[in-house]
Amino acid sequence: MGLRGDNKEEKAGGERLKLLEGRRILLGITGGIAVYKAVLLLRELRKLGAQVRVLMTPFSTQFVGGLTFETLSGNKVFVDWSKDPLAHINLARWAEVFLIAPCTVNTLSKIALGMGDNLLTTTVLAYKGPLLLAPAANTVMYKNPAVQENLKKLRERGTVVIEPEFGLLACEEEGEGKLAGEGRIVDWILWSLHPKPLEGKKVLITCGATREYIDPVRFISNDSSGEMGFSLARTARWLGAEVKVIAGFTTAEEPPEVEVIRVVSTEDMLKETLKAFEEADIVVMNAAVADFRPKIRSDRKIKKGKALTLELEKNPDILEELGRRKRGQFLVGFALESENLLQNAREKLRRKNLDLIVANPVDVMGSSHHRGYLVREDSVEDFEFESKLESALHIMNRIAELHLKR
Ligand SMILES: Cc1cc2nc3c(=O)[nH]c(=O)nc-3n(C[C@H](O)[C@H](O)[C@H](O)COP(=O)(O)O)c2cc1C
After folding, report:
1. What pTM did the predictor assign?
2. Mutation test residue for ligand 1: of 104, 120, 150, 169, the one with most atoms within 8 Å of CB
3. CA 396, CA 18: separation in Å to the nearest integer?
């Protein structure tokens, strides 16, 4: 599924996915103009099921008052020690993730120096878990060499810096410094909450539909959305992998923080896949490629006539080619079948020299549940989830286990 433009994490039936159910997130807020965006971010985290406690710097309360955050989080907002003399210890112990968004250049620099001059910076000192900073500032302030040095220090210590985006800033200038979008921030939270069995592994994923042009405006293709492939990419990143996606045409939202290389035809996809294949540890071929292409592609738009006969020729079989070249890579294919699903899947597994095949019955298309089978030479496991994202996470976890066992 991937993140939509409006950041709705949904089940197949349209209901909200509780990806952060019960997770304890400490949301730090500092005094930048982007504080109003933290209000929407808090709403989003709550909708995803998270418990959120808000910790504000004194200066940030001048931008949006604590009452807004208190109401939306359902918890007291902390600004100083007046509510609890051990607030810095208790909040640090409570949190599973500490996200500061927006994070001013002032606060990030103080954190880099190990200062504790207010409740927020003191809580950072008392906290041992994953720390995520989402800076937002005027471009010149953000690019200031002292700030950049402090960011470098923080990254070296393992702090996640969620890079700001390029855009029109509140100072009416265009540049880098806009607070990262909600989708990216949520994805980093999910990243920080997952174990990293794929740390140091390179995962290559193909997805979407390839197109074979008949003339400059017409083509043969299919309606693959790319949702499953993008979900696999997102979840592989959560599990620590370095992910590269080679995508044909897609309608699903691209996964955040993942390299996506775009291709048009099956032949282009083969070329790009072969370039990345040698270096990959795990290769998941989820693209719906066009098996045939027109023998002749017209340079001009074909005129309307009574009838048109197209001669098609076979495209290269990418999966089979990879199966032939495989040297240690864990190779995963997909099969969508209307009959003899398991038998056909196992036959494809052998013929294409795969390590695992994900077999889906055709009836999963348009259904509110996503189900299928993980087929190997000597075993079959079934799975069923309410969304493709959850299925993707299950599949990637199983791939990680099977790959590491080899
Ligand atoms: C209207 C206004 C907007 C500001 N916006 C930002 C900003 O977007 N990013 C930033 O790093 N600092 C910004 N500042 C400067 C910080 O507020 C200032 O450095 C302050 O000391 C930050 O305190 P804090 O980090 O404790 O919240 C802004 C200041 C004002 C008055």
Report:
1. 0.92
2. 104
3. 19
